[in-house]
Amino acid sequence: MAELTDAELRRELMALGYRPGPITDTTRKVYAKKLNCLRAEVAAAKRRGRGAPPSPARPPRQAAAGLWETVGERKGLSSSSSWRRESELMPSTHWGTTAASAGLGGFSHQTRFGRGEGDLTASVRKEPERELKPSTQGGGLLRRFPWKTAGDAGLASGTRWGAAAAGQGTTSRTQLWRSAPKSRLEGKGKGLEYYLSQFLCLASFVLLMIFLGILLVKMIGSGWLDRTEESCTCTGLILLLSYVLHLSFTFCQAQQKEIIMNMLHELYNYLSIQAGNFECGNPENLKSKCIWVGEARDHVMNVTASSPQKFEAALEWILKSSRDLGIWLKGRDPYEPVTTVEEVVCLESAHPQMGLGCRFRRAMITAIMNLFLFFWGLITLWGILIFLKYRWRKMAEEEQAMYEMVKKIIAVVQDHYKEWERNLERYPYVGILHVRDSLIPPQSRKKMKRIWDRAVEFLASNESRIQTESHRVAGEDMLVWRWTQPSYLSDSEH
Amino acid sequence: MPQSQKFKDFVSEPMGNKTVTEVDGIDENLGSKLAAEGFDKAYILLGHFLLLKKDALIFQQWLKGTFGASSRQALQCATCLTEWCYTIL
């Protein structure tokens, strides 16, 4: 054990799951002893059962020949195997090439501080350069070694040349092999936080998806519905039109049908576009979705170049039809159904045509409004709960204060009675207001009035030992309390 | 010499469980080198400083020789620890 260099000692300790501090002249022996202890523990654990690892952080390592090999096979990590290879081969190259100088370096490394001489630092600075070279050479050599021999070489170097040469690769190697356990430990320590943050991330993502889903359904759903309704109505319109026209107008059927169909179709489009505009920002400043008959007539006549009589006939036909055609005829009173063409004041589309942006906006507003309502409700409930809690707490406090007051009053009245028995007081009773004034300081009398009143009430109804009487004291009528329990009984309490 | 914020932060309070990189003059690079040798906490570095009998010069040489710290870094670190000892120890 004494032959191990600082770096090897550190490595062994780390391999057994222990994180040593700096290994100096003063701490070396302690850590060597610690390593022995740890190895004994590992060996004991192994004897008990091969399956169970001795420490949670690390798998057990064999102390003998298969030391390096075992860990390499178990872990299979590229980083750990790389440092191992390097460390095993480096000592042999040191030994071949620069064993003497390395030995000197090692010596200076340990003794220089005691002396504190500046000229030694030059030789120390060269160390990293020396370290780098063998390790690169070692990489090349290594591939020719089979695992077994490499392991043996590593062990031999650890025991035989350890003190002289092997320790010089400390910084470069330790950096390599430190990286693996460090990250593992951190990952373990932050497990809970990590999972929590993951969960929160997931939850917010799901919420976002739900929100988007509502939005999408609202948007596309309504659009799709609109479109199907529109097409349905259109076909229904056309079918009905053709059917009815076929029955009623036997002369110039085709022409009439076409004209009225065109007109109604145009009217439908016009109304739905106007209604859509009205819903989406209302650029034309319409007062309502309902379009005046005159405007509609003018527009339809302009587009289809037909006569007003035809328009009237079309309206008449709409009135007679029992099916929903997507056009509502409205009279002066919007809630009364219209029966004749003369009563019709305005026309309104049942299916407003809106653009994609507008639909999106409306869906968004609806979704946000729903969410807002939900939150508002939640906040209201929360507020009510907080208020109730506050109220209950207040009531409990007040009750507590009341009982305190009752106790104080009883004590005062009893004391007064005792003093009267010993002829220290003139009357066996005491005025209620006197008791109040002696118990409550003037500044808090107003605040405590409620509590006082409750206490008095409580005493009047629930306290048998105190009797409330009316007496004339100093020429003034006042309510007084008298202690009615004989003192030999009440004394037994104390 | 006006002292950096890092210096002030470190000297102003007990070092507790601070990492070695929070000592003035020790950057990430030097800090990782120190941590590789077991000096991962500031109190361990202070321990070594105390073992060297608070001798700033020897401490600087040690930092430069063992961990390749620059003269400036070594000076900053030694000053920082000296000042900390003066203030708090």
TrEMBL record, chain A:
<dbReference type="GO" id="GO:0006998">
    <property type="term" value="P:nuclear envelope organization"/>
</dbReference>
<keyword id="KW-0007">Acetylation</keyword>
<dbReference type="Pfam" id="PF09402">
    <property type="entry name" value="MSC"/>
</dbReference>
<dbReference type="InterPro" id="IPR052277">
    <property type="entry name" value="INM_ESCRT-Associated"/>
</dbReference>
<feature type="transmembrane region" description="Helical">
    <location>
        <begin position="363"/>
        <end position="388"/>
    </location>
</feature>
<keyword id="KW-0812">Transmembrane</keyword>
<keyword id="KW-0597">Phosphoprotein</keyword>
<feature type="transmembrane region" description="Helical">
    <location>
        <begin position="194"/>
        <end position="217"/>
    </location>
</feature>
<dbReference type="InterPro" id="IPR041885">
    <property type="entry name" value="MAN1_winged_helix_dom"/>
</dbReference>
<feature type="domain" description="LEM">
    <location>
        <begin position="1"/>
        <end position="42"/>
    </location>
</feature>
<dbReference type="GO" id="GO:0005819">
    <property type="term" value="C:spindle"/>
</dbReference>
<dbReference type="InterPro" id="IPR018996">
    <property type="entry name" value="Man1/Src1-like_C"/>
</dbReference>
<keyword id="KW-0206">Cytoskeleton</keyword>
<comment type="subunit">
    <text>Interacts (via N-terminus) with LMNA isoform C (via C-terminus) (in vitro). Interacts (via LEM domain) with BANF1. Interacts (via C-terminus) with CHMP7. Interacts (via N-terminus) with tubulin; the interaction causes microtubule bundling and stabilization (in vitro).</text>
</comment>
<keyword id="KW-0539">Nucleus</keyword>
<dbReference type="InterPro" id="IPR003887">
    <property type="entry name" value="LEM_dom"/>
</dbReference>
<dbReference type="Pfam" id="PF03020">
    <property type="entry name" value="LEM"/>
</dbReference>
<dbReference type="GO" id="GO:0030514">
    <property type="term" value="P:negative regulation of BMP signaling pathway"/>
</dbReference>
<keyword id="KW-0472">Membrane</keyword>
<keyword id="KW-1133">Transmembrane helix</keyword>
<dbReference type="GO" id="GO:0005637">
    <property type="term" value="C:nuclear inner membrane"/>
</dbReference>
<keyword id="KW-0963">Cytoplasm</keyword>
From TrEMBL, chain B:
<protein>
    <recommendedName>
        <fullName>Barrier-to-autointegration factor-like protein</fullName>
    </recommendedName>
</protein>
<dbReference type="InterPro" id="IPR004122">
    <property type="entry name" value="BAF_prot"/>
</dbReference>
<dbReference type="InterPro" id="IPR036617">
    <property type="entry name" value="BAF_sf"/>
</dbReference>
<keyword id="KW-0539">Nucleus</keyword>
<dbReference type="GO" id="GO:0051276">
    <property type="term" value="P:chromosome organization"/>
</dbReference>
<dbReference type="GO" id="GO:0005634">
    <property type="term" value="C:nucleus"/>
</dbReference>
<dbReference type="GO" id="GO:0000793">
    <property type="term" value="C:condensed chromosome"/>
</dbReference>
<dbReference type="Pfam" id="PF02961">
    <property type="entry name" value="SAM_BAF"/>
</dbReference>
<dbReference type="InterPro" id="IPR051387">
    <property type="entry name" value="BAF"/>
</dbReference>
<dbReference type="GO" id="GO:0003677">
    <property type="term" value="F:DNA binding"/>
</dbReference>
